[in-house]
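Please fill in the sequence for the structure shown.

STRUCTURE ENCODING:
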């Protein structure tokens, strides 16, 4: 089937099979930030935002994004101009191997876009599906708590 969707602000078309996973298609299209970890919806490393909502792209067929808007971390900040979420994570020293970070950043962005000053509980719920094997989560949570608190003050 032929699909058309907006990926990181650009209209893209692709010929896909009915069982092509969105994660595979996005990687073919150059989005190396989309990591395939567990491939069964348990780790969040393949997370992307579809129409502003976080989904696991390993559990989503490419055909399901036909006509929709997909955002990966490639569209969020840059080395020269990081997104405030990226700045906060770096300043807090919250990144080790970085494998989980695209999913963490997208999960945080989906939350902060709707609610710039989330509570600790809302942050915990938003990060619930993001597995990090390195950090113990404390610095990630601390970075995002600081960002939320800055938005409140
Ligand atoms: S690779 Fe998709 S949730 Fe783990
Ligand atoms: S920083 Fe390594 S998995 Fe999170």
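FILLED IN BY: designer on duty
SEQUENCE:
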């Amino acid at each position: 089937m032929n699909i058309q969707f907006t990926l990181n602000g650009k209209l893209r078309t692709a010929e896909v099979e009915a069982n092509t996973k969105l994660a595979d298609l996005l990687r073919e299209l150059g989005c190396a930030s989309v990591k395939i970890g567990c491939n069964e919806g348990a780790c969040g490393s393949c997370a992307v935002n579809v129409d502003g909502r976080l989904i696991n792209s390993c559990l989503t067929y490419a055909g399901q994004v036909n006509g929709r808007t997909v955002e990966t971390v490639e569209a969020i900040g840059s080395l020269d101009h990081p997104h405030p979420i990226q700045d906060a994570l770096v300043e807090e020293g919250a990144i080790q191997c970085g494998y989980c970070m695209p999913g963490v950043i997208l999960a945080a962005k989906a939350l902060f876009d709707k609610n710039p000053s989330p509570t600790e509980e809302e942050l915990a719920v938003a990060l619930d599906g993001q597995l990090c094997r390195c950090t113990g989560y404390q610095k990630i949570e601390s970075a995002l708590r600081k960002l939320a608190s800055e938005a409140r003050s």
